[in-house]
Write a structure and sequence with these properties.
The chain is α/β, with parallel strands linked by helices. Helix 7 packs across helix 8. Helix content is about 20%, strand content about 25%.
Length: about 290
């Protein structure tokens, strides 16, 4: 098992998840539920796009799950919404359907009746229409810490080109990133974002072990089709280097052919410009285990 002074990790990949389940008889749902996570470690499963499952400290956490959309997606559906009977927390970074999908929310809300849903304030109506009860919804003001023992989190603004605020309230942006500490591991998930003036400072203050950053970029032709872009591959890589992230995981590169990116360009930029920066390309269906020393 490779180690460094600060962290160690192991990986196990079953990228063709349908084949894995067929051969072994073990579904992704069962793997998530059976896997035991020691202290100071987090298990991560990729769901495609920006979606991930985190497990640690007795909690199972979903971030931006998009579990429907047959025929539109290039990544297989690894677990159905109604199969998610184990969720403790479901984070949504913003209201776009590949980050907050009503069908997915409706299924998880019913299957995991104790799960809490965390989302920007402008998502409230959608969550309620999907059957999420008021007491299960958290709309975090920027910077306010929520403490659930082994899981703590606070929100910071993401810039999906600009900042949109609910009713002009700057503590409630329409696009959020989450700074999550789970089982002793510090994780930043940006959702969709481009660089903004405060982002590097906010991330340095948090000092994440892991950062999930989009790499699909933006351009004139996609913008003409109302496809709002994100960090480019090199911006995401440079941001991770500047902040001192221990491990960066690129996102938003695999789901839709018209809005994807070749992750090899991300890896190549780091090879030529920041060879000491650790990264991992997380494929859908893959289990990645991160352990923090100390």
């Amino acid at each position: 098992m490779p180690t460094t002074r600060h962290w160690l990790l192991t990986t196990h990949c079953s990228c063709v998840t349908d084949y894995w389940a067929e051969v072994t008889g073990v579904t992704l749902k069962e793997r998530i539920e059976r896997f035991e996570v020691p202290e100071n470690m987090v298990a991560i499963w990729g769901l495609g796009q920006t979606g991930v499952v985190l497990k640690g400290g007795g909690y199972i956490v979903y971030i931006d799950p998009y579990l429907t959309g047959e025929g539109r997606r290039a990544v297989p559906i690894l677990i159905r919404p109604e199969e998610v009977t184990h969720a403790d927390f479901v984070f949504h970074t913003h209201i776009h359907i590949d980050h907050l999908d009503p069908q997915t929310v409706r299924g998880i809300a019913k299957a995991s009746p104790k799960a809490k849903f965390i989302a920007p304030l402008n998502c409230h109506k959608v969550l309620r229409e999907c059957g999420v009860e008021e007491e299960r919804i958290i709309h975090p003001p920027v910077g306010q810490i929520f403490d659930f023992g082994a899981l703590k989190f606070y929100a910071i603004p993401s810039a999906h080109y600009g900042f949109d605020f609910v009713e002009g309230k700057q503590e409630f942006p329409s696009y959020l990133g989450y700074c999550i500490t789970l089982n002793g591991v510090k994780i930043y998930h940006s959702g969709d974002t481009i660089l903004h003036d405060d982002l590097e400072r906010l991330l340095r203050e948090f000092a994440p072990d892991i950062a999930f950053l989009p790499i699909n970029g933006r351009d004139y032709y996609r913008e003409k089709r109302n496809i709002i872009g994100n960090l480019t591959f090199w911006e995401a890589a440079q941001l991770a280097v500047n902040v001192g992230v221990k491990l960066v995981i690129p996102t938003h590169w695999d789901m839709f052919p018209h809005n994807s990116e070749n992750f090899a360009r991300f890896a190549d930029w780091l090879y030529h410009n920041a060879r000491d920066q650790h990264f991992h390309v997380l494929h859908a269906g893959e289990l990645f285990i991160y352990a923090r020393e100390g």
